[in-house]
Here is the input.
Amino acid sequence: METPVNELHRGRRTKDGIRIYDPSDFAGMHTAGALAARILDEIAEHVFVGQTTGEIDRVIEERVEAAGAKSATIGYKGYQHASCISVNHVVCHGIPGDKKLKDGDILNIDVTVIVDGWFGDTSRMYVAGKLSRKAERLIQVTHDSLMRGIEAVKPGNTFGDIGHAIQSFVESHRMSVVTDFCGHGLGRVFHAPPNVLHYGRPGTGATLEPGMFFTIEPMVNLGRAETKTLADDWTAVTRDKSLSAQFEHSVGVTEGGCEIFTLSPAGKFHPTYG
Ligand code: MF3
Ligand code: CO
Ligand code: CO
Here is the structure.
């Protein structure tokens, strides 16, 4: 029997072990990414002073199930929640719980869903009550640093170009890029090569090719870059207790640049737009 052409190409990897997906695979990523983004759109009204992060996570889990999708994080390395919710000086992997949000708290909500085997991973920032000026600046710079990184995503550029775009922008605003965590390849799996560093030098690292799928998810601190992980083995915090923010998109490299799979259907990715 003849092997169909797309089967021959399926699963090709670069010398760095980065999987190259087929043009037809973009549709699955688009669907998964759009669901994760829609859930983040819909969760905005559940973020308010007095609300618990556990209740926000419960609503997220309900929405994932209602969509007929699966949470990628429940059961992942023993993690038990449908989201990570990282408040104030928590850098990432905050565990939802009974703590109530206070006026001025900023939080990142990170959701990963699986739709027909495709992974959609995205996070963005929210505020409970009134946003302080310094938190607003941090959120703006973090959001814009992700967008600078995404602008560097096109065939022929390298992963170092992405990292450099993010790092140079953040540091020009006298903030710090977290180096202890990175973005990652994804697609039919949650975490795959490469590690997508949010810092680096132009022209270094693997060269981008059409069909690469990965996340970019810079974490930015108002103070120093150093983090530590709490005794729960998940929660990462800034060592100096300074505020931290993060935004994450899942993208796929196209001939002309990239497709952002996790665009907000309601245009509410940035908190002050919605
Ligand atoms: N969604 C996170 C990421 O951006 C991973 C969370 S893993 C968990 O890669 F187990 F902490 F949920
Ligand atoms: Co991710
Ligand atoms: Co994520």
The first strand starts at residue 70 and ends at 71.
